[in-house]
Write a structure and sequence with these properties.
Elements (H helix, E strand, L loop, with lengths): L6 H14 L1 H11 L7 E7 L3 E8 L2 E8 L7 H19 L1
Antiparallel strand pairs: 1-2, 2-3
Helix pairs in contact: 2-3
Length: 94
């Protein structure tokens, strides 16, 4: 069963992404956040419409908002959407 995207679920997703998938978070900022010069990023929150990230650009922290292509239904939709976005970004890079 999937959870609604509550603040607690957002925190759980962000913690997991930042600790285990830092490279993916950087890709989201570089590709979808149109900040290719970012060297790293941190996911701050995720909601039904998009995610709020902070990119590291030339030593500065820059807030970046990435909108999703559809409204997320729940945490499983978030999971599948983040995976699909990463695959799409990696394919575009090659």
């Amino acid at each position: 069963m999937s959870d609604a995207l509550s603040p607690a679920v957002s925190d759980r997703i962000c913690k997991h992404m930042n600790e285990d998938h830092g490279e993916a978070v950087a890709v989201y900022v570089q590709i979808y956040g149109q900040t290719p010069e970012a060297t790293a990023a941190e996911m701050k929150s995720i909601d039904n419409q998009g995610m709020n990230l902070v990119a590291q650009v030339n030593g500065d922290s820059v807030p970046v908002r990435v909108e999703f292509d559809h409204a997320l239904q729940d945490s499983e939709d978030a999971h599948q959407t983040l995976i699909a976005m990463l695959k799409q970004a990696r394919q575009a890079a090659h």
